Amino acid sequence: KAGVTQTPRYLIKTRGQQVTLSCSPISGHRSVSWYQQTPGQGLQFLFEYFSETQRNKGNFPGRFSGRQFSNSRSEMNVSTLELGDSALYLCASSSSEGVRGFFGPGTRLTVL
Amino acid sequence: SQQGEEDPQALSIQEGENATMNCSYKTSINNLQWYRQNSGRGLVHLILIRSNEREKHSGRLRVTLDTSKKSSSLLITASRAADTASYFCATVDPSGYSTLTFGKGTMLLVSP
């Protein structure tokens, strides 16, 4: 099976802009989670989707949002970008609750 | 927020030596997982240990879990230069979701 894919791999944006990141999970996986990784805060959970429903959410402002489509592909959107949003955004898919996550290569977002 | 704390933050050893990393967490868990990350790339799953297990082996990896002390350790035996990476523990709570709560990680450097 193909692994988790994330697009784009790199993004450069300026403050105030918005950005949409995409994640395609492993075929058959219905759970997709998003994580933000920064040198200061480490790996932090953003949200998790299962069968098109957000079933868990981390402690991030409302500028961070996401959705999942019927084919399990997921997108996350960040509006009104801030310098502190510069990070590696990782997506993980899993087949069922509580089991191992399969991570994509990440999207490196730089906000100037 | 971070659930786990890894110890040490950084570890430097020679090839052939064993590397031990420790992880402590704060709340009840369904399982605990260890991941490896090479230089800002995606996370690779190493091993999962459930809350009712005490020890697990996979190749050169040995993981222990002590739920009474809320701690886990990862032992890599006969380290190789290719083991150089950051290692993270991540917990899954008993809610049934797939959300991973990560520690800050241990940077392992294995010198030839």
Describe the structure.
The complex is a heterodimer of chains A (112) and B (112). With 112 residues, chain A is mostly beta strands. Chain A has strands at residues 5-7, 10-13, 19-24, 31-38, 42-50, 53-57, 64-68, 74-78, 87-94, 102-103, 107-111. In chain A, the strands form 2 sheets. In chain A, strands 2, 4, 5, 6, 9, 10 and 11 form a 7-stranded mixed β-sheet that branches. Chain A has a 4-stranded antiparallel β-sheet with strand order 1-3-8-7, with no helix packed on it. With 112 residues, chain B is mostly beta strands. Chain B is 0% helix and 54% strand. Chain B is built from no helices and 11 strands. In chain B, a hairpin with a 2-residue loop joins β6 (55-58) and β7. At the A-B interface, β4, β5, β9 and β10 of A face β4, β5, β9 and β10 of B.
Number of helices of chain A: 0
> Averaging pLDDT over every residue of chain B, what do you get?
92
| Cα-to-Cα separation, first versus last residue of chain B | 36 Å
Largest interface: A-B, 29 and 27 residues
Measured on Cα atoms, how large is the radius of gyration of chain B?
Answer: 13 Å
Overall shape of chain A: it is: globular
As a whole number of angstroms, the C-alpha radius of gyration of chain A is 13 Å
Assign the structural class of chain A, choosing from mainly alpha, mainly beta, alpha/beta, alpha+beta, or little secondary structure.
Answer: mainly beta
Strand elements of chain A, count? 11
Structural class determined from secondary elements of chain B: mainly beta
Largest sheet of chain A: 7 strands, mixed
How much of the sequence of chain B is in beta strands? over 45%
**Largest sheet of chain B, described in full?**
6 strands, mixed
Beta-strand content estimate of chain A: over 45%
What's the overall geometry of chain B?
globular
Question: Residue-averaged pLDDT of chain A, rounded?
Answer: 94
Oligomer: heterodimer
